[in-house]
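Before going further, learn to read the protein records used in this course. A complete example follows; check for yourself that the lines match position by position.
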Amino acid sequence: MSHSVSRRGFLRNTSLALAGSTLMPLDWNLELAKMKHLGLQLWSVRADMAKDPKGTIEALSKMGYREVEGFGFNDGKMFGLPYSDFKSLLKDNGIKMPSAHFNLTMKDYDTQKKDITDRVKIAIDAAVKMKQKYVINPYMDATERNSIKELIPLYSATAKYCKQAGVRFGYHNHDFEYTIKGPDGRLLIEWLLTELDPSLTTMQMDIYWVAFAGQKPLDWINRYPGRWELCHAKDMAKDGKHESIEVGDGSIDFASIFAQSKKAGLKHYVVELEHYVTTPMKGVDRSLQAMKKIKF
């Protein structure tokens, strides 16, 4: 059904008479409602966060961000602030943090006990206190990519502990998961999707990196429906270098991808930038405004 038909039905059923000039804002609200959880990965503004976390969070709130995704939990702190203080900073600015990245390596798994290390448990417990919904592993170390069979027990044990604690474990891809094959010929992403229990683990599709690997995000959504509860949104430059740029300024058809959000299981849309045409703060503002305008 088109948005215009839906709008007419809405007006008829509620007996509202809106002038023509109000129709575009209503369209905008309808689209934004589909991305109820629209946030920012703070890696995008890492230099600003390192220099002035308070001022940066305040600025992001003024831009219109109501959710962020953290990274770098270490010794009970994030961005140099005790986790409790960081939680208060977000709350004071009307921002929630439903997810955060926490990097795992094979050192985090005790093969004798078949359990994760205390370092990981402490981070997960802290995430629960932050009222996060997800703890996401953002990267597979280059030295461990040929050991996917050994990584699966680590991820599985982490996912089980997460569920017991009350959060959900996720994995965030780059391009190599879609190009490197495991010992049996399956791509690393296929290993993750088939060897990890979907009741315990979800995926955060970085749309840019899937496209960078020469793959089509929609193909993977169709092959593994319901597995992609989160995504990272950054665009791909059209200049042949394929570097990441602000959403709306590149070649990725986000509207077609987001149109399959229900099939994907997609609930959280997270803006991320790694390269900038202007500055990080201007870039994430530009991307936010572009995300709001995507029609699907």
The first strand starts at residue 37 and ends at 41. The radius of gyration is 20 Å. Confidence is low (pLDDT under 50) at residues 1-28. The CA atoms of residues 204 and 251 lie 21 Å apart.
